[in-house]
Amino acid sequence: MKQQAGSIRIGWVIEYKNKPWTVTKTNFVKPGKGGAFMQVEMKSVEEGTKTNERYRTEDMVEKLMVETKDCQFLFEDATGLTFMDSETFDQFSMPSDILGDSRPFLTDGMAVIINFIDGKPISVELPLQVVCEVKETEPVIKGQTAASSYKPAILDNGVRTMVPPFVGQGEKIVVNTADGSYVERAK
Q1: Are 79 and 92 in contact (CB under 8 A)?
Q2: Distance between CA atoms of 182 and 130, rounded to whole angstroms?
């Protein structure tokens, strides 16, 4: 199925040089001059090698049709990440690096979508957004709530992100799993 490159997400399986590749990292770049593009890091399903590719946002990529299953993350050990199929309760493992930079957002018991090709699990799609707690950040300064500047923060999973000045330590926020960016305060 043809998709615009600007909509590529982590966990997708796309065709690149006539082979299936799993998207492990994406970065949307809008330079000051020229057109926007997607910088995509991919891992080969067959060989396990990695590559980076740059697509213009209007380019079309072939998203491969794969079997998707709702699964639950159970735990991580020396063999990798262990998941359970939500329908059959079968357990299987995948390499720990399958999620790339999104790995810290995977928590015990989280519902995820696993993509399969020929019965073999090849990629994990996390929920688009998760709730995290701010562990460290600068204190709230009165009168700075109208400023559009952001301040650094460290989340409970160790991820560093930028949050608005009104967000304080101990607050729960919604974070985008693709890039770790702040979305909103958790309700």
Answers
A1: no
A2: 10
